Structure formats: C-alpha cells, structure tokens
Amino acid sequence: MMAELGERLSKIGLRVVDASVMMLIDGRADVTSSEIGRVLDIQRANMVPLLNRLEAAGIIDRVALDRKSMAIVLSATGQDLLAKARIITAGFERDLMARIPTEHRPHLVPALNALWR
Amino acid sequence: MMAELGERLSKIGLRVVDASVMMLIDGRADVTSSEIGRVLDIQRANMVPLLNRLEAAGIIDRVALDRKSMAIVLSATGQDLLAKARIITAGFERDLMARIPTEHRPHLVPALNALWR
DNA sequence: TATTGTTATACTCTATAACTATA
DNA sequence: TATAGTTATAGAGTATAACAATA
Fold first, then answer.
1. B115 and chain A: CB distance < 8 Å anywhere?
2. pTM of the model as a whole
C-alpha cells in the first residue's frame, strides 16, 4: 500500500516521507529537525540529507529558533505542494476504505490509532 | 510495530522476513523461490541471498521439482523454529490487540484482510 | 516464448560514532 | 550535562540488467 501511495505522490515529485514531514510541520513554526525525527522514527543524522533535499526543492525553510535549534517551516511553494499532496492522500485513503466491507470500515482508523504508540 | 516484532523474533535468530517465508512454505512441498518472491513482494534476484542464509542455517532445503524449478521446504530444524516463531508472533498479536478498545478489536483483522490485494 | 535460478552491481535507506556548539 | 545539528561511513535492503538452462 505504501508503494502505491508512493507512486501517486511521485506525480508531484514527492516521496511518502516528504509528505509525512510536510503534514507534520504544517501550521507550526516551532518544529525542529530532531523532533520530526523522533515522531517519524528517523535518526537525527538521517534527517539532514532529507531536509537538504526539501530545502533545495524550495519546499521548506530553516529558521533559527535560537543559536542552536532550527525550526523547519513550509515555504509558500511547500504549502501549495502540500495542498496537492493532501488531495492525493485523501483519494488514496478513499480508495482503500472502499475495499473494506461497510461493517468494518468505521473501525479501522480508530483501531490503528490505538496501536500508534 | 514491525521493529518490535523484529526484536522479539531476533531472540530465536530470525528476522521478520524469515518468519514470513517459513509460514508461507509450511506444510507445502511445491513452493518455489519465485513464488515466494511474488507473494512477499521480493524480487527473484533478492530471494537468492535470503534463501542461501536460511539454507546455511539449516532451516530450509532446496528440493528439485524438475530440472528447472526448486521447491523450498522446511527442514526438521526449520519446523521446530517455526513453532517457536508462531508462539512469538501470537504473543505479539495478542499484545497489539490488547491495546485496541474492545468495540474496534474484532474489526481490525477483517479490515486489513480486505485491503490485502 | 516465457519462466527459473542465478550473478553482478548500482542505488537507496538506515544505523553508528564522533564532533562542535549551545541550551 | 543534555541536546541540536552536522559529517562521515559502514551496513542492510532493494532494484535493474543480464545470462544460461529449462518449461
């Protein structure tokens, strides 16, 4: 399923992890690279090339929070792309849900949320 | 969750993919390397080192089906290990289920099964 | 002609250790 | 003293192409 979502997101030049980061930082001005890594289970060290790529694509900016930490924020371009990513992921989730018999359908997301941490 | 399962299986020297292969071929005498790869989304070429490792560990045997295809079968050692792997995975699934509120619990597996292919 | 098993290899992803600087 | 960001690098996993042999 992740491979399928990845294919759909690749049409707007994004990977699944990119969209995950973008959704995580959307609307917030204080999320650091390390925090993103902790939430998404990505090592601090591996966040660097990931964010470098998003920055080079003009999707995110690094804004100093203090002299040590950097906030990762969506640029205007990033926000436009995220809007498209949300349409794609919503369509993907709709397609998945359609395959589930109606009596089970409303239980999947709550059940998965309960498993999350 | 897969990382957690991997840790538990590592106590008997197995990876998640090893247990997956073992469960897939258990009780069958006609499953080829290519078939395993198709079911588990693993390329034919990448099955080779995987099965070489399982064979070196004495878990599986390669048995000629004809002069071209090889059946991958569990050895006696492999069957013993699989019994242990089933205990571990059953415990893992029990622990996961316990985290889901009872009203959603019976719906998760049927919902996931509906998503499978 | 399609498929199997295999080799070789490039590529991506992930883990680990180490370092500097700042909270 | 703990944490942030970073670099470098090893290792694991995955994808791709090619090959000989057989169905």
1. yes
2. 0.93
